[in-house]
Design a protein that fits this description.
Shape: globular
Helix content: 25-40%
Strand order of the largest sheet: 5-4-1-6-8-7-9
Distance between the termini: 40 Å
């Protein structure tokens, strides 16, 4: 029996404000802003029906709305601090049945890994509410083979997001993590974190400080070319061949403050 195609919306969580690297989402990498690269990489995922930049109503983010307009990318503006509400309202506005969450500090996000997460979620035999790659706060305490920090992708049903939006009261859950209310309640929601074939938790590919920007620019400088979307495997091979690159932003490993999500299980 054929099942009707569900509408899949990718929401890129983005804002201009950043404590350690203000304006990072529009900083240049190989002639294009960080956000352009993320959107371009998501365009390689055929399962995604629409890509939306979800930013806040703060005036400093007007430049993001203009960027989206110029690049013909959908843009939604909502709450600054209640990011869960921003996501819920954006998903509702764009009639999402499935939401793919990506953050704007992940310019090395891997299209094939995004596809893996989506296809796993769509496996009707399992009927998950939430699927993610094994990286970030959700698997901080789990002994699993993790993906590099900065390849994060989460897939959730709109119904699960709506329930979380209705029930969550903790600022921790309603804030920038967006889906922590869901993955902290595995007795309520059907969750899966997809492990990698090896543990790459010592790889820091996220964009949070100047050292990260230098690292990512080095990777793009060696792998990027117009019309070709290099993969996570390409990056791994490069780092194996040139391990000196890992020293650029090594200082940032382990400083993500993931512990706060595990101090009190609700």
């Amino acid at each position: 029996m054929m099942h009707a195609k569900k509408r899949i919306i990718a929401l890129i969580q983005a804002r201009m404000g950043s404590t350690r690297l203000p304006g990072k989402v529009l900083m240049d990498i190989c002639g294009h802003p960080v956000l352009w690269h993320i959107a371009n990489r998501l365009k390689q995922v055929p399962e995604i029906d629409e890509i939306v930049v979800a930013t806040s109503i703060g005036r400093e983010n007007n430049v993001l709305e203009k960027f989206c307009h110029d690049e013909n990318i959908s843009c939604f503006r909502g709450s600054e601090n209640e990011v869960m509400d921003r996501f819920y309202q954006a998903a509702k506005y764009y009639k999402a049945e499935i939401v793919v969450r990506v953050t704007a500090d992940c310019p090395l996000i891997d299209p094939e890994s995004v596809r893996l997460a989506i296809r796993t979620f769509l496996d009707t035999s399992a009927q998950f509410d939430y699927v993610s790659l094994a990286t970030g706060a959700a698997v901080f305490k789990q002994k699993v083979n993790k993906y590099p920090d900065g390849t994060d992708v989460e897939v959730v049903s709109f119904s699960a997001l709506e329930r979380a939006w209705q029930e969550a009261t903790e600022p921790l859950d309603r804030g920038e993590s967006v889906f922590s209310y869901i993955w902290r309640r595995k007795n309520v929601f059907r969750c899966l974190h997809i492990p990698f074939s090896a543990d790459l938790s010592n790889y820091r590919w996220t964009l949070d400080c100047p050292e990260d920007l230098e690292f990512i620019r080095q990777i793009y400088g060696k792998l990027y070319r117009s019309g070709y979307c290099f993969s996570m495997i390409d990056v791994i091979r490069l780092l194996e061949a040139e391990p000196v690159l890992l020293k650029i932003n090594k200082v940032g490993i382990g400083k993500e403050a993931y512990e706060k999500y595990w101090q009190e299980q609700k």
